[in-house]
Structure formats: C-alpha cells, structure tokens
Amino acid sequence: MTDYPVDIVIPWVDGSDPAWIREHDRYSATTLQDNSSARYREWDLFRYWFRGIEENAPWVNRVHLLTWGHLPPWLNTAHPKLHIVRHEEFIPEKYLPTFSSHTIELNMHRIPGLADRFVYFNDDVYLSRPTKKEDFFRNGLPVDTAVFGVIKNDDVSNFMPYIMLNMMGVINMHFPKRAMLRRDFAKWFSPRNGRGVLNNLYLLPWGTQTGFRNYHSCVPFLKETFETVWREEEEILDRTCSHKFRSREDVNQYLMRYWQLCEGKFVPHRPNCAYLTIGEDCAAETKALLNNPRYTVVCINDDPMGFDFEKEQQALHVVMEAHYPRKSKFEK
Questions:
Q1: Cβ 183 vs Cβ 131: under 8 Å
Q2: What is the pLDDT of residues 82-110, one digit of tens each?
Q3: What does pTM read for this prediction?
Q4: Helix orientation angle between 234-241 and 223-232, rounded to the nearest 10 degrees
Q5: Which residues span the domain enclosing 305?
Q6: Which of these, 26, 135, 196, 273, has the minimum number of CB atoms within 10 Å of its CB?
Q7: Total domain count for the chain?
Q8: CB atoms < 10 A from the CB of 24, how many?
Q9: 249 within domain boundaries
Q10: b or e along 115-149 (b: 16 or more beta carbons within 10 Å of the residue's beta carbon)?
C-alpha cells in the first residue's frame, strides 16, 4: 500500500519584514517565554531547501508553505505543487497573531486540503540525498526511531527541558509504559532503532516514561494523531496556543510524535540525520555533513550565540550553492 499521497508542511518567517516587526512589537514576552531573535532571523537560505525537495523528494504530493503573510521574492507562487497558507487560514482566530512555532505546529492538521499523511520540516532541515516515499511512510505508518531518553538540563535559562517535562506528564497519563512495551516490544527493541536499543535496555526498569530521544530532522505525521490529541488534551493545547511566544508552560509538536510512538503507529528505522548549530567557521562542518553518504537529512540550526552573522551567512551561501547548484522550479 503506497498509492496514498504524502504532503510536506514547512513554516517560514521573515523576521526582517517591517510589517511583521510592527505587529510583533505590539506584544511583550514574559520571563517564562522565548522571544530570541534567532527564532525569526532570516538567513536567505530557503531557496536551497526547495532545491533539496525538488531534487530529493519528487514523490511529494504538495508542499504547504505556512506564512504570516510575507513570501521570499524569488518564490514561484504558481508552482502546481505549492500551497501557500497564511496563518489565519488554519490557525483559530483566538490564537492570532502568534509568534510561537508551537501554535503553528499544533494546528497543522487544520491546513485546508492537507493529506492524511505528511512530513513536517523546519526551514533549517535539508534533504541532502535522494529519498523515496517509503523512507517516511511504510504500510501507511510513519517511519521513526523509537528510543527512550532522559530529560537533561544544564542551564536554568533553557526552555526545552520544561516543555519536555510537560509532555511526559501528558504521555504518562495516557500510556502506561509496561502495557505499551508488552504490545510493541518488537518495535522498541528492533535492531532498526540502531544503537538506541541500548538506551531502551538501560531505561527498561523505569516504570514510567522518562523521555524520548529527539532527532533534529523532519518528522512524518498522521493527521489523525493531531485530531486525537486535541480531542483528548484540548486544555493544555489551548493554553499553549494562547501564548504569543514560546513558553516553558507549553507542549509542542513532539507530543504528536510521542503519541504515535506510544500508540505503536510507526515502523522502526535507524536514524539517518545529522545536526549542527551555527557558530564560528561552521561552513566546513556543514559541507562535510551535506556530503556524508550516511545522512539523508541535515539540520543547520540557528542559535542565539555570539558570532559574525554576515560572515557565517556568506560562507553558508557558498556551501549551499555548491551542494544545490540547480535552480528549482519553485524559483522564478
């Protein structure tokens, strides 16, 4: 069964847009919220994301581009596979305007015309090698890596550990660990999970879910999972979406991934992604990861660190242009 359509969903924001800045500046973030400029900074690398999709994912049915309203000037808006979706077209009005990726992600199932199966990307996650639809869905189920983890924190200013704890509370309320493993032991201890099976063995004695390994990669989703979680946990999702900026009180789209894993709605697969955080002289590392045959997906993550933005931007442009030299039909 492979004749079902698979879409891609990709949000994008241009933090340099004066109209967006004016609306953004009408609201203030609290100390519990994340309003870092790195969340909105535009590196002008988005065309390479589209080149990677056209070259390495020709099987895609539609690309849903989620936007506040602005678009890259080079984008071919008439491309037959491109669906431009403004926030007000899928996010309930009571949550708008939003400057939180969590609100955007948690409402993706409301995108008009979205296929029942889709792959969620961030705009810093690139396909570096050719893929097949079966790399993301097999027998109609998401392909994912099922590995237990622990929630770590090395700085009280970090946001993610708090969000992870919130999600573990939800997961443990719905999925007793021992019952889940009795049902899907073969999936969690499949060699297809790679060395992560050792994590699963080590954390097996813990009676509750302690966390899950996250991979900075694209994620295959079933639309029905979002509908189920909204039906079961509307209160915490509503509270998250009511925040204008990302908050420590939130959950995020990883909750949907964890829910799929705990329901057993996945096919185990060894991770094939790489991750780096942009910093001083990161272009060489980026080039090495993009050219490494072990990796199909590479995340080049922005972070509020001290570095020369223009220098790193120019260096990354050179690397990306060399890896994705062919202009795509998504460009004018």
A1: no
A2: 999 999 999 999 999 999 999 999 999 99
A3: 0.95
A4: 100
A5: 7-140+215-323
A6: 26
A7: 1
A8: 18
A9: yes
A10: bebbbbbbbbbbbbbebebebbbbeebbbbbbbbb
